[in-house]
Write a structure and sequence with these properties.
There is one protein chain. The chain is an alpha+beta fold and 211 residues long. It has a single domain, classed as Tgt2/MlaC (Nuclear Transport Factor 2, Chain: A, Roll), CATH 3.10.450. 59% of the residues lie in helices and 16% in strands. It has a five-stranded antiparallel β-sheet. Strand 4 and strand 5 form a beta hairpin. Helix 2 crosses helix 8, helix 3 packs antiparallel against helix 5 and helix 6 packs across helix 9.
């Protein structure tokens, strides 16, 4: 029941999958994005298995593991600009950096514990449909639930000029993470402005850190 409650929220499905399936740092540029996803899935699972005792003693260690293995390979700035849309273009450089920081922290702190409780879910990787020279691809996966039905999760990735593959959006059952947050944040910004949204995210992140 605990796992099923976790999976009932589409946002949590997104975050669990995002944190489990990201490219390893400093991998060869010629390696496919799907191969990177598979290898990093194994890496994060092994890390969580090996450090369960330490995580129980010091829950902050979970954040450190996620930060070390996963977060450097998300393009949070690109995601943030898409989430804010026109509000990003109007924001000051300071506001942009503040939002990226708090948005990044929000995703991690909200779901790190859920990741730790559910890292043993089985993930199937579907054939990659992309040309070798493609600079933007979608890595398709399915998460197999205990209830017996899979959830399709697609990772939109692009290759930088340096040859590194980065995730910039995740789709769960055709629902985009970026689009989902863009809708909710846009409404909040219209009502109270971007500074108020940033302040709320900051307060929530601090509260989650204390808890």
């Amino acid at each position: 029941m605990k796992r099923m409650r976790f999976w009932l929220g589409a946002g949590r499905v997104v975050l669990l999958s995002m944190l489990l399936c990201l490219p390893l740092p400093l991998m060869a540029a010629e390696q496919s994005p799907q191969a990177l996803v598979i290898e990093t899935t194994n890496r994060i699972i092994k890390a969580l298995q090996a450090e369960q005792a330490q995580i129980k003693k010091n829950p902050a260690r979970l954040y450190e593991i996620v930060d070390e293995i996963v977060l450097p390979h998300f393009d949070f700035r690109r995601m943030s600009s898409w989430v804010l849309g026109k509000h990003w273009r109007k924001a000051s450089p300071v506001e942009r950096e503040q939002f990226v920081k708090e948005f990044r922290a929000l995703l991690v702190r909200t779901y790190a514990a859920a990741l730790n409780d559910n890292y043993d879910q089985k993930i199937d990787f579907l054939p990659l449909r992309a040309k070798k020279e493609a600079t933007e691809v979608t890595v398709r996966t399915e998460v197999q639930l205990d209830a017996g039905f899979p959830i399709p999760i697609n990772y939109r990735m692009y290759r930088t000029e340096e040859g590194e593959w980065l995730v910039f959006d995740v789709n769960v059952d055709s629902v985009s993470l970026v689009t989902n947050y863009r809708s909710s944040f846009s409404k909040e910004i219209r009502q109270g402005g971007l500074p108020k949204l940033i302040a709320r995210l900051s307060a929530r992140n601090q509260r989650l850190t204390r808890d």
